[in-house]
Amino acid sequence: xxxxxxxxxxxxxxxxxxxxxxxxxxxxxxxxxxxxxxxxxxxxxxxxxxxxxxxxxxxxxxxxxxxxxxxxxxxxxxxxxxxxxxxxxxxxxxxxxxxxxxxxxxxxxxxx
Length: 112
Ligand code: 5GP
Ligand code: ZN
Prior knowledge:
Layout: H1 7-13, E1 20-23, E2 27-31, E3 39-45, H2 57-76, E4 83-86, E5 102-106
Antiparallel strand pairs: 1-2, 2-3, 3-5, 4-5
The structure holds guanosine-5'-monophosphate and zinc ion.
């Protein structure tokens, strides 16, 4: 389910500290350590898989719930006027952490 040598699994297990903003049994949201916008949260499933194309039924169930939870969590954490979601999949997109995550960006007007 979780992986021993994955930084986001370590954050989920509490072995690496993070600034948490939302947590339930399926997912954890915390602040990105190198924010690319005034508000930059990461939404991370509590299940280790790297790519959308690797999500099984349980992974897809969690991702679906995640999309339902994101708007309220984003608004509560400073994205009053909207937000942008980003998933980097694979090398060409610059994915650096191979545990699927959704970037939530906002808190200011965003350029494209
Ligand atoms: P990716 O490029 O894989 O889509 O994004 C990975 C993100 O994770 C980056 O924005 C990076 O700043 C963030 N990140 C990497 N390591 C840590 C960490 O230990 N703590 C937190 N809060 N964010 C991290
Ligand atoms: Zn992981």
